[in-house]
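User: quick one - fold this with 2-acetamido-2-deoxy-beta-D-glucopyranose bound?
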Amino acid sequence: MENITLVAFLLLVFCFTNTYYAPNSYAQPVDCLASDREALIDFKDGLDDPANQLSSWIDRKCCQWHGIRCDNRTGAVVAIDLPGSYNRYGLLNPSGVVRPSLMKLKSLRHLDLSLNSFNGIPIPAFLGSLENLQYLNLSYAGFRGKIPRNFGNLSHLKSLDISSEVLSLHAETLKWVTGLVSLEHLALRGVDLSMVGTDWVSAINTLPSLVELHLSDCSLQGHIPILPSLNFTSLAVMDLRSNDIVSKIPDWLVNITSLHHIDISHNHMYGSIPLGFGEMPNLLSLKLLDNENLTANCSQLFRGRWEKTQVLNLAANQIYGKLPSSFGNLTSLVHLDLSDNHIEGELPVSIGPIPISRGSLQKLTSLDLGVNRLNGTLPESIGQLSQLQILSVIDNQLTGPSFPAWLKSQNKVDYLDFSNAGVSGFVPNWFWDMSSNMSYLNISHNELQGKLPTPIPIAQFTAVDLSFNKLRDQFTFRQC
Ligand SMILES: *[C@@H]1O[C@H](CO)[C@@H](O)[C@H](O)[C@H]1NC(C)=O
Ligand SMILES: *[C@@H]1O[C@H](CO)[C@@H](O)[C@H](O)[C@H]1NC(C)=O
Ligand SMILES: *[C@@H]1O[C@H](CO)[C@@H](O)[C@H](O)[C@H]1NC(C)=O
Ligand SMILES: *[C@@H]1O[C@H](CO)[C@@H](O)[C@H](O)[C@H]1NC(C)=O
Ligand SMILES: *[C@@H]1O[C@H](CO)[C@@H](O)[C@H](O)[C@H]1NC(C)=O
Ligand SMILES: *[C@@H]1O[C@H](CO)[C@@H](O)[C@H](O)[C@H]1NC(C)=O
Ligand SMILES: *[C@@H]1O[C@H](CO)[C@@H](O)[C@H](O)[C@H]1NC(C)=O
Ligand SMILES: *[C@@H]1O[C@H](CO)[C@@H](O)[C@H](O)[C@H]1NC(C)=O
Ligand SMILES: *[C@@H]1O[C@H](CO)[C@@H](O)[C@H](O)[C@H]1NC(C)=O
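Assistant: Sure. Structure tokens for the protein plus 2-acetamido-2-deoxy-beta-D-glucopyranose:
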């Protein structure tokens, strides 16, 4: 019975995917080249296709086959677009071998075999001879072993994605990348690059059109070298997250004015965070969290303009000093995480919109200042951050004669953590009204007083910790 239900369900899934793909949406009057059709049939014969996704690959008009596109003048096949799907039936994506018959498709510009299930076979080196390719996506397709060096012959390639399950592919060098002179997008996430040394930087610096670089989880080692000159005039995304880079942040990085997103989190960077980040004209997001020994004096760092910066995550570093009053000038900020640093002193009043002339953090939806050395009281102006949903000031030395009244004007707070923040006084009744909307509430380890309402108005699935206060009927519980 169970089996029948499963089969029925699978059929339903296939019907859905087939109707989604089957009638090729490119109306193409021209029949495909006979030689291209033969090459495709041979390519298909090499594949295992348990879900019969290539069922349309039979008749004469190969330009109308699922995943195929042709040049509408010549009928030559220009694209094979066969990405697998992420769903839990991913095992039914095509597997088997990639036959060299693909080399006969002289006009092929686009090849997407991502997410298929080539169980550990090497990437076929002949793909490096498909010299007209502009787009090649072999990501998460189950390939193992070495990236063929002759991929450097693909001089028309604009986009190369060979991201893989962590460390199932590797490369001994990235020198071949210098041959990809048209490259705009390079993604090698999860590819083991522990052997390439530090050459990768100069290799990639030869690519003047590069816009996106994704080298996360690659086991990159060593330092990031000084560059004599920069070719990165178009680079917008630099993702080096989760590697083993032991380096100062290179001075040249802040010279790349085209950068929108920088992520060098979870490495072993050290030295000071260049103040130049604050002056980068297009920087939307900077993530440097969890590095060893990365330092900055807060009052200097936030004197920068940070004009467009929406996401700033500098958590778990060695940032010290006080938050300057110019902090309120970072008006584009949406997510700010400075937790687990050594920031001291009081929170500047400028955090909220008073006085308006000096800006404010009106767009802030999450603010994490936990695990620092902040003291004084939380300024009332926080109450005017009307978009705030996540606030954490856990583990600081904040003191307050009374419960933070500014909370009253907050109606979007969903996650509130001011445990061990030195807050004292009576918990007002309006607080219990707003607590009913929260999914996380931790006000433990303070000096709070008062009587708990019964029952406590909290939403289902809320994690609540009210312990270690002077509340009557106090207890800790987790309702989920
Ligand atoms: C061929 O395709 C191009 C772009 O896809 C389109 O502009 C052109 O009109 C098409 N030509 C014919 C003959 O269909
Ligand atoms: C490659 O394919 C994957 C999965 O289909 C997709 O998420 C990714 O965006 C593609 N990469 C590029 C550079 O287009
Ligand atoms: C392609 O690359 C290989 C290895 O890097 C090289 O020996 C060969 O000459 C290249 N072929 C062409 C056509 O450039
Ligand atoms: C910059 O790119 C050009 C063109 O690819 C290349 O000739 C030059 O060597 C590159 N400069 C550096 C410093 O790599
Ligand atoms: C970066 O900019 C600084 C200041 O404008 C300049 O001195 C330096 O030479 C630049 N570095 C590179 C690699 O372009
Ligand atoms: C970080 O600082 C500690 C203590 O000063 C030192 O032992 C360690 O070697 C430093 N790490 C790096 C990568 O500089
Ligand atoms: C941080 O910089 C400010 C302004 O330059 C300076 O007054 C302060 O002493 C510095 N803080 C520390 C801890 O060095
Ligand atoms: C903050 O911005 C205002 C207006 O943009 C400017 O007048 C003021 O000098 C800035 N404050 C600081 C400390 O940079
Ligand atoms: C907060 O800490 C600073 C040192 O970081 C100290 O000078 C100041 O007096 C403290 N303020 C309060 C209100 O405790």
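One thing worth noting: The first strand starts at residue 47 and ends at 48.
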